[in-house]
Amino acid sequence: MDLFEYQGKELLRRFEVPVPEGRVASTQDEAALAAEGLGGKVVVKAQVQVGGRGKAGGIKLATNADEAREVAGQILGMDIKGHTVKRVLVERAGDIKDEYYLSFLVDRSERKFLGMMSAEGGVDIEEVADTNPDAIARVHIDPTIGISDFHARKLVFGAKLDPDARKGAIAMIPKLYRAFVELDASLVEVNPLVLTGDGKVVALDAKVSVDESAEYRHPNFAELKSAHEVPEQERLAKEKGLNFIKLDGDGDVGIIGNGAGLVMSTLDVVKAAGGEPANFLDVGGGAKAELLSNAIEVITSDGNVKSIFLNIFGGITRVDLVAEGIIDAFGRLDVKIPIVVRLDGTNAQEGRKMLADAPHEMLHSEETMLGAAKRAVELARSDGGAR
Ligand code: GDP
Ligand code: MN
């Protein structure tokens, strides 16, 4: 679960990581009040779980409460990469002498934690990794041993920070590491970490992702989660007991499959066929008409979807029962976009024959996964079955 910046900072504060003083506001009045409380000169920051807010106009400076009200008005309600801004973080603005990058993450291939630091902060770290990889200092930390001073020094000297920032950064690194470990985070990223005019080292931004599997030892995760709104379609799906995920971007192929693994590979195959998935939905082991109708309904409620790839492999679930469910679902729904069905596994022959015997203008059968993916992509391109 990716936390909002304000949530991440609040958690980091508990581990004594220096962060600017700030308050969350969801209205212009609240923003003005927050600015007043902070002494006037503030920065107003859009709270969305996506980077690049600065470039998108979601971060603005204000020199007094009235200005804070005005810029909050511009930022609240703004759309940043498909995320609507519901809250802003109003923070005391400091003067920035230098911007750095610092993060901790899990390096699964090394079975260790990885700390990264760079003097090139405030910019996309992937870009630094591409254009100037030597500018990123890395240290692996054995989780069973933990962090030592030499790790911190290796990061700070390796990244060639301004000498004025060394002391503050070396003090902060073990605190950030402790936060990372104790929060069961998969990522803690501070970009930028800044050196202020008066020589302090402060986390100006915070991206914290916590592992939801660890929720049982973090009662506060539920509260953190409640600030996140689930998209309307995902909520609808959840109500119907379905796992539905909307993907970012402008994909147009909806994907339904049984089992997470099959669904993931279906996404890959659609990509390989030159298409772009819009969303995906896992129906698990279910084959009932009601479940399949619900699944089709949820998928088609996404206006971007121009075709659906329904990919079923029958293991324990019998394919003929799935076919029955599909035919039944077509009877219940007014299906207006083409659905390409690929059935394989237990009783696949019977299932395919049943579909062949119950033709529908919007029902297309394919025997292979790649064949079905290609067909679904083609149909999405030709603007559905509107032939
Ligand atoms: P992101 O663009 O979503 O990663 O948002 P950040 O929080 O990293 O902010 C982007 C940039 O805005 C930073 O690199 C800073 O240059 C600038 N910025 C953020 N907060 C402040 C602040 O308090 N004062 C000033 N002067 N600039 C800030
Ligand atoms: Mn940032």
Q: Could you characterize what this model shows?
A:
With 387 residues, the protein is an alpha+beta fold. The protein folds into three domains: 21-92, Dna Ligase, domain 1, CATH 3.30.1490; 96-226, D-amino Acid Aminotransferase, Chain A, domain 1; 232-385, Rossmann fold (3-Layer(aba) Sandwich), CATH 3.40.50. Helix content is 37%, strand content 26%. The chain has 13 helices and 18 strands. It has helices spanning 5-14, 28-37, 65-75, 125-131, 149-158, 163-182, 220-226, 232-239, 260-272, 289-300, 319-332, 348-356, 369-381; strands spanning 22-25, 42-46, 59-62, 79-80, 83-84, 88-92, 96-107, 112-118, 136-141, 185-196, 201-203, 207-210, 243-246, 253-257, 277-282, 307-314, 339-345, 363-366. Strands 7, 8, 9, 10, 11 and 12 form a six-stranded antiparallel beta sheet that branches. Strands 13-15-14-16-17-18 form a six-stranded mixed beta sheet, with helices on both faces. Helix 9 links the parallel strand 14 and strand 15 (277-282). Helix 8 (232-239) runs antiparallel to helix 10 (289-300) and helix 11 (319-332) packs parallel to helix 12 (348-356). It starts with a helix and ends in a 6-residue tail after the last helix. The structure holds guanosine-5'-diphosphate and manganese (II) ion.
Q: What are the bound molecules?
A: guanosine-5'-diphosphate, manganese (II) ion
If helices are DSSP runs of H or I spanning 4 or more residues, what is the number of helices? 13
β-strand percent reads 25-35%
Give the overall silhouette: elongated
Task: Briefly note the structural class of the backbone.
Answer: alpha+beta
How does the major sheet shape up?
A: 6 strands, antiparallel
State mean pLDDT (0 to 100 scale): 93
Overall number of strands: 18
User: What name is given to the CATH topology of the largest domain?
Assistant: Rossmann fold
Number of domains: 3
